[in-house]
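anyone seen this seq b4? input:
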Amino acid sequence: MKDNKIDSSLTPVVHHSVAKRVNLDNNYQPNSLEQTEHHLWHDFTRPLQTFSCVTEHSEQKEQDYAELDEH
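predicted toks r here
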């Protein structure tokens, strides 16, 4: 948000649980991230990951998301 409006120049930051749900639930495909570059946030100790669209989360390996649960 900038001046009380959505600023398209800012890249959204998404919690890693959203990516995990996209990966594990074929019926969950958030339209707002369909063709939107976004950052994936894990925790305060790891850097943000950048994704170009939501489909990239579906292509992630399931073990990658299992590792997130360990942290």
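Strands lie at 13-15, 38-41, 49-51. The chain has three helices and three strands. kinda curious what u guys think
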